[in-house]
Amino acid sequence: MDYKYVEVAIEDHIATVAMNRTDSMNALNVPLTADITESVRELSNNNEVRVIVLKSNAKIFCAGLDLKAFAGREMKNPVRDIIDMQFEDHYILDCCNVLEECRKPVIAAIHGKCIGGGLDMVCACDIRLCTEDASFSLREAGIGLVADMGVLQRIPLIIGQGFAREMAYTARYYTAREVERMGLVNGVFADQASLMEGAKKLAAEIAANAPLAVEGSKDVLNYSRNKSMGDGIAYAIQKNHLLFGSDDLKESMLSFAERRKPQFKGC
Predict the structure, then answer these.
(1) Quick one: 187 and 219 in the same domain?
(2) Are residues 216 and 203 in the same domain?
(3) Residue 9 DSSP label
(4) Which among 54, 57, 53 has a CA at the least distance from the CA of 203?
(5) Does a structural domain hold residue 37?
(6) Tens of pLDDT along 180-215?
């Protein structure tokens, strides 16, 4: 897994994806979002990986969309060029969708500013943790745009309509403690070192469970967001019909009888 703008490491079933466009504060352009998309897609299909931690190697988490890269494009044929750009720029949307659709849970470890498209990305993750100095801004209204990478669809499901609309309309920066009270982040840590320690600890707790059951739980949670209660329960039952025949369920029963910790293999 060799990428230019992300660094990927795998240890003890935990994959770390570090955004590494450090000279531009991880401003989102096509090459960076392509690397995020392809790396997460590959990790999603890697059975040795059970959890992914998304982090930044830059001074901040993400500066949002790279407006310079997009504003500098020359358009000779407005209609054709717009159509071509929509095709070329699919990675901008894909980098959020792939995090949500990834079979494995994704934990976002956020430090410093998380702006615009960065907020779009972390809202597509399963769990968000941040440092005390982190700040979050849904910036688009402040620069004359509407957020179109999925945050307006995802963030109300996380923090509710009231807070989501406040963030979208004001475009201001919110502190770590403010977004913690909203429910956007699950925990706030003193610094980057303790943030990564906390993220790895949480990832290890997840990785210790039956991988197929964790993947199934994420699938059911995603499916159930826009379905009726009955449809969601039916889908969960369907998942369990498959898991009843898994080796991990047998291992769970055997380890309980033998009074030891189960050793799950994801099969």
Answers:
(1) no
(2) no
(3) E
(4) 53
(5) yes
(6) 999 999 999 999 999 999 999 999 999 999 999 999
